[in-house]
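User: Hello, beginner here. Can you help me understand these amino acid letters and fold codes? It all follows right here:
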Amino acid sequence: MKYFYTVYTKPLQGTNHYFVKKFITFPEYTNVPDVLESFGMHTDFNEACRIAKVIDEDIKQQLLKNLENNVTDAKVIPMNVVKASLQNKPNRLINFLM
């Protein structure tokens, strides 16, 4: 049994949040999926780690390094909302029950 961790950021309502996940993996067994043991989300990185039960300072530093290296993954792509017009659609009653 081994532990591994993931971290990423995501803006929610204009504020950047940290997502920290702690997984258990079983390399000694085949075809056994990883298990999510704990999960933390917060605007403060250390608080997100505390919620996810990540207490080792070396692991936290490694997570921060991984986060800094993957900054390009945290881009926000703006989406343009277009309202569709239904004026050109004919008003027909469709009978689905025949």
Residues 2-74 form one domain. The longest helix spans residues 57-69.
